[in-house]
Amino acid sequence: MFDQPMRPTSPTIGSDTPTARTAPSRPRVVIVGAGFGGLTAAQHLAGWPVDVTVIDRRNYHLFQPLLYQVATAGLSPAQIAQPIRGILHGAANVRVLMGRVGDVDTRRRMVQVDDREVAYDHLILATGARHSYFGRDEWEKYAPGLKKIDDATEIRRRILTAFELAETEDDPVARRRLLTFIVIGAGPTGVEMAGAIAELARRALARDFRRIDPRSARILLVEAGPRVLAAFPEALSQRALGSLRRLGVEVKLGVPVSAIDADGITLGAERIASATVMSAAGVRASAAAKWLKAEADKAGRVKVQPDLSVPDHPEIFVIGDTALALDPSGKPYPGLAPVAKQQGRYVAELLRARLADAPAPGPFVYRDWGAMATIGRNHAVAHLFSRYMFGGLFAWLLWGVVHVMFLAGFRNRLTVLMDWMWSYVTFQSGARLITGGPRAP
Amino acid sequence: MFDQPMRPTSPTIGSDTPTARTAPSRPRVVIVGAGFGGLTAAQHLAGWPVDVTVIDRRNYHLFQPLLYQVATAGLSPAQIAQPIRGILHGAANVRVLMGRVGDVDTRRRMVQVDDREVAYDHLILATGARHSYFGRDEWEKYAPGLKKIDDATEIRRRILTAFELAETEDDPVARRRLLTFIVIGAGPTGVEMAGAIAELARRALARDFRRIDPRSARILLVEAGPRVLAAFPEALSQRALGSLRRLGVEVKLGVPVSAIDADGITLGAERIASATVMSAAGVRASAAAKWLKAEADKAGRVKVQPDLSVPDHPEIFVIGDTALALDPSGKPYPGLAPVAKQQGRYVAELLRARLADAPAPGPFVYRDWGAMATIGRNHAVAHLFSRYMFGGLFAWLLWGVVHVMFLAGFRNRLTVLMDWMWSYVTFQSGARLITGGPRAP
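ok -> structure tokens follow
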């Protein structure tokens, strides 16, 4: 239990004094997960008469939309991650706990964190999702997904190591396998990964090797569905496909992957040898449904009420990628950062109304400002306000501005912007390090 | 074997054409290690009629003098590491191999790299040193040293995790242990580490926690010898000691560490509980002496001739931390970056003279421009031209200028400078990420 303050006279923690803390009137809000949803909820509860505890198993908030640039050596991890404590240090009624949640006792209203328990009056679960292999978990070691920083540095290690090994490989068949890179899944992450690997090979690495020509690398983007960026209008899918092909990415649509192993993949009946396979295909929600013993869909998402609370538990909310929330037409909201952020804000506002005995807001409705995906230098597609669609240089600039704007921390914004401008001018990439893993013990 | 070029018609590789390659007159120079010594040698052989192969088990050159700032969350790894291929890509007669050297066959003149062999006519071994535990190798897991990027991110993980665990710890004794940080060895690295941890605790982290006060952390610098910075003049040691104490570092001199285990250290008869112990004490040279079956000193350094060649092997040179080279008075040169760089340049010039049948240069003599160590914000000590000594703000500014100047790569210089200025103004540190390790699986 973490309820006794230990620095009662500290000058820096504002209302977090013994009087305030032991006053029975301050409800305890526990938020699990400091991704887009959880962090936004915490920020919108800052300064209100509640004691908020944010629990995350990592000490940083990660800006996942740019994680693929860490995986492809464009950015450093610290540029897209910000310590949670740093973001929330001005919020005196919010404390941060680093720990792993293992279960929730909904009867006693306790969250189990490592070997301790944290009590709540209101609980917000924003625990996100992981990549999924549709039941083929053994594929993970051959085709890692991209959700965490350690995933990204591992993928970076594999990509850069493949070029290094190809340089010393005498057998042309083995060399071909080393220079074949496969990305599975052509959603935004897959498209962005494939485009970034192509640019790395064709530009940043082009002059660095003596025996191989990195420009000859084969980059495959493989998708079981009929088109890339299936969540976008068909015209933008076509446009993105054209940009990918011009970048030299081979796109294979409509054929599912039937096997992945150490030597490569099987695509329908075709065998493709590759040393570096990445998965950007499926996601699976966190274990929140299991903790709550709540109803979930096939992807593990908790079915929530229109106000994002869990049936029969008005004190528990599930938001972001872990929630199956339906729009007014009955369609599930997609697992996107803006959805999670709006849900975090909505729940904070609902709690504030509830605490003030004010009327509750109406059901959650997502305001769709738009979606974007970048393919490479000067190429992106954008679909704004569910109406306007465009691609090319302007979409690419807009993509850059929006992503820098939403990054947490002024310094990160500045250094990411600088690195992008630098890479744009020099065609170089800044973080081509092989760290960790068996090759660099 | 790596002798057949595979891109004979590539327009980018200049003289690296079949004609040039197969001409019997081009001697093969193999350089093992792309640290300060090896890289400098390669740069001074660029453009000369030799075929140079640089072998390193990593793909980057590391600017070790700033590694402690990665370990203390000030800088990101990519800011102090530069891909070797990128540095040397303009040198058409130099190729880079990523691989691990396991042995040297001096009779057949072959270097064994992984499961292959590379032939040489001249060999330069610049394989550096690792930390040493004076025969107590079991200490390494409790007190990691600081030589590689993965060491630095591991130490960063341990330091930041200790604060996180202390925040959730109820037992005051256990909390004290978590907030006690011990650095063993008060050479430049140890002094810089201890100072940086103190600043991290007192400034960057001070406002981020609710239950603990990071400013109460105990930082110990432990040294068996009688003073800190033993390689500097006594007056500067005194000055550094004063600066360390003002920063809140407890310095214990003259008592050797007699035990290190999971709970802390034993210092003489005193037991000090600590969750985070780091070693900056001893170094041990790489295995080069073993490969060559050459005479070595206790630290494993190969005894070299005045021209840095190995006795009876005028075609083999050992430079940098792996070499025991003596100055004109018979004293060994210290293991410093400038020594390694001057030796790399010397050997390159000697080889160029040898190939041109010009008279060989005289024996290697180190030109000592000076040494510096920084303690923290506004505090450093400098000893220049073996004559001038000073400390304080001016030394600190000079230290910063020199270190930025010697960093490889314009972008790294720029971003390091920006990060330093940012931290100076805001008291924040930029890379406070807990990655890797058992806490973030």
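The first strand of chain B starts at residue 28 and ends at 32.
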